[in-house]
Amino acid sequence: MHILDLITLRYDVSYIHSFQIFIYFFFQCCRLLIA
């Protein structure tokens, strides 16, 4: 159970990290369009 919990936690962190990267790129594109 502990190993599965660690894998799940690690997967959630990587998912959140990729989502933050997506938000960052989206924000940069919006800035270019506005400017």
UniProtKB/TrEMBL annotation:
The chain crosses the membrane at residues 15-34. Keywords: Membrane, Transmembrane, Transmembrane helix. This is Uncharacterized protein.
